[in-house]
Design goal:
The complex is a heterodimer of chains A (about 350) and B (about 550). In chain A, α4 (about 55-70) packs antiparallel against α5. In chain A, a hairpin with a 5-residue loop joins β5 and β6. By secondary structure, chain A is an alpha/beta fold. Chain A has 13 helices and 10 strands. Chain B is an alpha/beta fold and about 550 residues long. Chain B folds into 3 domains: about 5-110 and about 120-145, no CATH class; about 195-305, Four Helix Bundle (Hemerythrin (Met), subunit A), CATH 1.20.120.420; about 305-445 and about 525-555, 3-Layer(aba) Sandwich (Rossmann fold), CATH 3.40.50.10470. Helix content of chain B is about 40%, strand content about 10%. Chain B has 20 helices and 10 strands. Chain B has helices spanning about 5-20, 40-45, 50-55, 65-75, 80-105, 125-135, 155-160, 195-205, 210-225, 235-255, 260-275, 280-310, 330-340, 355-365, 380-385, 410-415, 470-475, 480-485, 495-500, 545-555; strands at about 320-325, 345-350, 370-375, 390, 395, 400-405, 425-430, 525, 535, 540. In chain B, the strands form 2 sheets. Chain B has a 7-stranded mixed beta sheet with strand order 3-2-1-4-7-9-10, with helices on both faces. In chain B, β2 (about 345-350), α14 (about 355-365) and β3 (about 370-375) form a beta-alpha-beta unit. Classes of the chains: A alpha/beta (about 350), B alpha/beta (about 550). The interface of A and B includes residues 235, 237, 272, 345 and 352 of A. Chain A: GO terms for molecular function: guanyl-nucleotide exchange factor activity; translation initiation factor activity. Chain A: InterPro entries: eIF2B_alpha/beta/delta, elF-2B_alpha_N, IF-2B-related, IF_2B-like_C, NagB/RpiA_transferase-like. Chain A: Pfam families: IF-2B.
């Protein structure tokens, strides 16, 4: 395997802005999840950057990934994608044969890129697969409590609603927990996350009730199950998800309702948080202030607008929490319905 | 080593360890074949009659078989067929004796052991057979050194004649196997000197800890392989395995093998079996030595570095780390985190009788860490301000349970069930070589019982202040020797048998003679998987439920 100096590669890498590409991809396609956007951005990067050796490619990939992770406030979701892509590249390169280290690098490159695209297409289809798996969980006459703006959950509920036999073959109710934090911040359309799904479900004839987060404990008695989405599924089978999921998990456990998580298998992250405060994210949810601090902070904000090298903080409305595996009944993924402990098995399968 | 002549000495040598415990503990290890005649006399009478046979035993055993037999009891020479039959009978008798010994809980290690063979109803026929077998196997016999003249007090020996109380704790009865070997006497001649030495080191906890034992075993086996020559008429892959199994058997009589040792041995045997029989011996040996080196490097040395690095990531500024006993991998982790400049405190919980945490405490304190040391009784106090618990492992079982030094489960439970606090994560650092496909539901079925005498403190710290009230002295009849030894005055009065044996600072010193008293010295316990949050291995961090998957993977590779 030939190796050339990496310095030339980095010099060329500058013109293509991976962060901008990633953000642009996420904005342009509302159906795109973070890991997939990251993979797509990396594939685009590889098509843009002419690299001639394997080590050059890997180095470029590693550098751009690190850069991307540093500039995005919540890199958990996207790191699932970048890690997966990197892993995939390495295993492809290690495989013996035409596409292995002995083969022609040009051929390897084109193969990688085409396969990367294939991977993206498959990942997009995985939501359909999940819906097919999860449909069985929603039965006639049940009430589902859900939260957040997970597209996987939305597609699952919609799939259940329009079963083959016309509109709403399965009659079920939905209690939708709407976040109160995002209400005062103008989102894409100035309404809380999930309103779109609520409208779509109501259009399909599914009765939906919306409640604030403070009413979850009150409303859980009327629900039969909880279904939530996830930003990342971590190694021990727990999930990193929208702030408020953890408390729903605790309440569901306390009241004895099953708690299901819907997540694509590309959201599995090699991460092992030990608790809420062990996430690789800078978020200041709990902040103690006095009147003095507030005055001091506002004065400071006027003087220093932005510090380039500071780690990016996560805005409060995007903050996440960690739901430990013992609160989760099952994970509905595109590789089947898994128990939390099976997640690590799946991850090991991917990584070794 | 396959020549048929060998079989006789081997069997007679194997015979020796069984007899050894019954002889004086101070006996020279070179005695491989004590010839015991007239043992029937011993069976009839109490200790004094023991003197006679010992004298007889002193007779040079190197004499011709017929002579030896004649000297023993005027026996006529036996035909080979008869010899064989007698050897068989002798073996059966030995088994029975061993069993009795075990039941009696006779500790050969105890310095003041009673007279040999006391209380053992041996079939009267056996002594002659002993002599005969010994004579036949004279190849291995040497003149035994003079026996220790005086056995313990005659009175004590008489007392021993009474049916001994069972000193093994009933629930753990199945764990009382053979007594641990005390000397290298009677080890087969195939056993390599390096292995002989290692066996004693293992037994005395000089080499202690799952990884250390595994590494030491592999290194000793490397020397075995190096000095091995394939006998004529066989091939290395076929014969070396049996040669190794002699070493393994010897090691396991010194101390039961650890899971890591077992896994390493299995890997080595697999490597031996994989060698092409047509490969020249020197090349095959080089391959095996390389295999051993790379095994140690990959599975232990580098694995430890990887684990230490990734576990150190979990330590944050301001943490209070609680750890139990002295795990080398936890030490590496804490030192790695310290080197990264993290500010944290360490609280070491230790336990008797091994006090493994003392070395850890010293090593960490020397490195500049803030260390608190306490014994396991202080657990509730130590766990109060803990933020994380780091534990080492002896093994991880397939149901995710942690099998580690006894007391680990208590620490893990205290951390998890801490009242009124946030849950403290329990992190286990464990190389995958310690994973096993066995399942442990409790600490009873699979465990190791160490010598109960370890629980009897050998040296009570010298008392400097707070000397006992002189008034209290007069009450119990304590002899002045003991009072000087700093013995607390309110300790129970030892029975007269103990006082004959010089100063014994512990009230438990003669527990074997005390009725209704059993000592239990367990080595390990099983921590439920629910109490373990994370297992850090060289392959990454796993929940305990992933242990079987990783084990399957790492053994299939």
């Amino acid at each position: 395997m030939a190796t050339t100096s990496e310095s030339t590669a980095t010099a060329v890498a500058k013109p293509f802005d991976i962060v901008a590409t990633y953000n642009e991809l996420l904005r342009s396609d509302p159906d795109l999840t973070m890991p997939i956007a990251a993979i797509e951005a990396l594939v685009l990067l590889l098509t843009h950057e002419p690299s001639s050796t394997i080590s050059e490619t890997l180095d470029l990939l590693a550098k751009s990934t690190a850069h991307l992770k540093k500039s995005i406030p919540n890199p958990i979701g996207l790191s699932a994608g970048t890690d997966l892509f990197q892993r995939y590249l390495i295993t492809t390169l290690q495989r013996p044969g035409q596409l292995g280290p002995a083969g022609d690098f040009k051929a390897i490159r084109t193969h990688l890129l085409s396969n990367g695209r294939l991977f993206i297409r498959r990942a997009k289809e995985s939501r359909e697969k999940i819906a097919a798996f999860g449909r069985g969980f929603i039965r006639d006459g049940c009430t589902v409590l859900t939260n957040g703006g997970s597209r996987a959950v939305a597609s699952l509920l919609q799939k259940a609603a329009d079963e083959e036999g016309g509109p709403s073959a399965v009659r079920f109710n939905v209690i939708y927990v709407l976040s109160s934090i995002s209400k005062d911040i103008e989102g894409p359309s100035g309404e809380p996350e999930g309103m779109e799904t609520v409208r779509a479900l109501r259009a399909k004839g599914v009765p939906v009730s919306t409640i604030p987060e403070s009413a979850v404990a009150y409303a859980l008695g009327k629900a039969d199950m909880v279904i939530v989405g996830a930003e990342g599924v971590v190694e021990n089978g727990g999930i990193v998800s929208r702030m408020g999921t953890y408390q729903i998990g605790i309440l569901a456990k306390a009241i004895g309702k099953p708690f299901y998580v819907v997540a694509e298998s590309h959201k599995f992250v090699r991460l092992y948080p030990l608790g809420q405060y062990d996430l690789p994210i800078e978020q200041h949810v709990v902040e103690f202030k006095t009147e003095e601090d507030i005055a001091h902070k506002s004065a400071q904000q006027k003087s220093v607008e932005s510090d380039a090298d500071r780690p990016v903080e996560l805005p409060l409305e995007d903050s996440v929490d960690f739901t430990p595996p013992h609160l989760i009944s099952a994970l509905i993924t595109d590789s089947g319905v898994l128990t939390p402990s099976a997640v690590s098995e799946e991850l090991i399968k991917i990584w070794f | 080593m396959t020549d048929p002549v060998d079989s006789a000495p081997t069997s007679s040598q194997a015979n020796a360890p069984a007899q050894l415990p019954t002889q004086a503990a101070t006996e020279n290890p070179s005695t491989t074949l004590p010839i015991r005649e007239a043992k029937s006399a011993k069976d009839q009478g109490p200790a004094p009659s023991d003197k006679k046979p010992t004298k007889g035993k002193d007779a040079p055993a190197a004499a011709a078989p017929a002579d030896a037999a004649a000297a023993a009891g005027g026996e006529k020479p036996l035909t080979p067929a008869e010899l064989k039959k007698k050897a068989k009978a002798e073996k059966a008798a030995r088994r029975a004796k061993e069993k009795l010994e075990r039941d009696g809980g006779a500790g050969a290690a105890g310095g003041s052991a009673p007279g040999p063979g006391a209380g053992q109803p041996r079939p009267p026929a056996t002594p002659k057979k002993d002599a005969a077998a010994g004579g036949a196997a004279q190849k291995g016999s040497r003149a035994p050194p003079p026996r220790r003249g005086s056995q313990g007090g005659a009175g004590a020996a008489v007392e021993q004649k009474k049916k001994k109380e069972d000193k093994s704790v009933a629930v753990f009865g199945h764990l009382y196997g053979q007594q641990r070997r005390t000397t290298i006497a009677g080890a087969g001649k195939e056993v390599h000197p390096a292995v002989l030495a290692l066996g004693l080191q293992l037994r005395d906890y000089v080499v202690c800890g799952s990884s250390a034992r595994c590494v030491a075993t592999m290194l000793a086996f490397k020397r075995v392989v190096e000095s091995y020559t394939t006998p004529l008429g066989t091939s290395l892959p076929r014969h070396l395995t049996t040669h190794l199994s002699h070493q393994i058997t010897y090691l396991s009589t010194c101390r039961p093998l650890s899971i890591s040792q077992g896994n390493a041995i299995r890997a080595l045997k697999l490597a031996i079996a994989g060698i092409d029989p047509s490969m020249p011996e020197s090349a095959a040996k080089a391959t095996l030595c390389d295999f051993i080196d790379s095994f140690i490097r990959e599975k232990i040395t580098v694995a430890d570095q990887v684990i230490a690095a990734s576990a150190a990531q979990k330590i944050q500024d301001g943490d209070v780390i609680v750890t139990f006993a002295g795990s080398s991998i936890v030490k590496q982790t804490l030192l790695a985190a310290h080197k990264e400049g993290k500010q944290f405190r360490v609280s070491i919980i230790d336990s008797r009788p091994l006090f493994e945490g003392k070395n850890l405490a010293r090593a960490l304190a020397n490195a500049g860490l803030d260390v608190t040391y306490s014994l396991v009784h202080g657990i509730s106090h130590a766990i109060k301000d803990a933020t994380k618990v780091f534990l080492g492992a002896h093994a991880m079982t397939s149901n995710g349970r942690l099998y580690s030094r006894v007391g680990t489960a208590l620490v893990a439970m205290s951390a998890k069930e801490r009242a009124g606090g946030v849950e403290v994560p329990v992190i286990v650092c464990c190389e995958t070589v310690k994973f096993t496909d066995r399942v442990a539901l409790d600490s009873i079925v699979v465990n190791e019982i160490a010598d109960a005498n370890e629980l009897v403190p050998a040296d009570v710290p010298q008392q400097v202040t707070g000397l006992p009230d002189p008034a209290a002295f007069t009450a119990p009849p304590v002899d002045p020797k003991k009072a000087k030894g700093g013995k607390p005055a309110n300790a129970p009065t030892p029975d007269p048998v103990a006082s004959d044996r010089g100063p014994s600072p512990s009230p438990l010193a003669n527990w074997k003679e005390t009725h209704n008293l059993q000592l239990l010295n367990l080595m390990y316990d099983a921590t439920p998987a629910e109490y373990v949050d994370m297992v850090v291995t060289e392959l990454g961090s796993l929940p305990p439920s992933a242990v079987p998957i990783v084990h399957r993977m790492s053994t299939n590779m």
